[in-house]
Amino acid sequence: MSFNANEFITLFKSFGLTESIDNIVSNNANNIIWFVFFAVFAFFFIYSLILIYHWFKYGGGLFAIWLAIIVYFSVSFILIAAIYISAIII
Amino acid sequence: MSIINPIRNSHEVFKSSQELKLSNPVKVRENSPYTNSLQNKRHASASNGTNNPYRKRRGIISNGINLSPDEKIKITLRKHWFILLKDIFGLIILYIAPFIVYLYFFDNAVITEFFNNKIYARPTLPIIIFAISIWTLIAWIKLFTIWTDYYLDVWFITNKRIIDIEQKGFFRREISTFRMERIQDITIEIKGILQTFLDFGDIHVQTAGESQEFIIRGIGHPKQIKEIIMHQSDIALEDRNQIPAIN
């Protein structure tokens, strides 16, 4: 008994749940992408506030703190810009 | 300004008697904000605060520790850099795992055909950049969380006590102090090839207090640190014996 790939694929395509998910995603792709963007940005914002709070309150050395802030935010802003631009293009 | 060799990381050693020679001594002003950062709080509280130049920095530099008037920080210790690298390595594995899974499974013809004609079956470049950037940002935040936890774990060895500050996640911090004259014994533990070659290990300190032993884990140059602690402990005991008893 050999494995028939076409029958296997047809079986998956006829599954109702996946078709409905596909329809929802197709019709609301733009909203989903912006929702994900703002969720990630909110997560980043809250975590950054927590990190900065701990660095300034318990950090001790100002040079290390400011170096960490510069490195952290410079790379973070590049990533957020990439997310934003790709969301616009999508 | 005198030449002082402070310890910023545990791979450098400072000895108050200047017997140890460092390859790269660093000039630090004796009254610099860093070396006296913990004493600024005492100075600010003693005066009215209006003319104290360090009053503004009290909330920024303070670790929440008050030093006695004749107490000075001899060494500031942090864990060896290899400990941080070990924690970051796990994060790196977790970061590249989705890429490996994607490259492995999406080469399968069946699954590729299943996703055919679906929106997520045609990964255009913006979608790829969108997904990878989000994943990288999350990993980047986690990386700095690991670094913050490493950086805020610190030991201060003063001429009177050892202050153990351990940051256990966000908003959870444990501060323990052990008086120098209560130290009875110090044991060094260096396990494995890496610890031997990189010269870091654990220091077990036996005290006479309620918590009889505390452990300084992952410290570089543990032998030199042990000598410094023993030296300070001897000085503290001598000072204690010289104080006349009050009848």
UniProtKB/TrEMBL annotation, chain A:
The chain crosses the membrane at residues 32-56, 63-89. Keywords: Membrane, Transmembrane, Transmembrane helix. This is Uncharacterized protein. It comes from Candidatus Campbellbacteria bacterium RIFCSPLOWO2_02_35_12. The lineage of its organism: Bacteria, Candidatus Campbelliibacteriota.
TrEMBL record, chain B:
InterPro entries: YdbS-like_PH (IPR005182). Residues 32-53 have a biased composition (Polar residues). It comes from the Bacteria. The chain crosses the membrane at residues 81-105, 125-152. Residues 155-229 form the YdbS-like PH domain. Residues 30-57 are annotated as: Disordered. Keywords: Membrane, Transmembrane, Transmembrane helix. This is YdbS-like PH domain-containing protein. It comes from Candidatus Campbellbacteria bacterium RIFCSPLOWO2_02_35_12. The lineage of its organism: Bacteria, Candidatus Campbelliibacteriota.
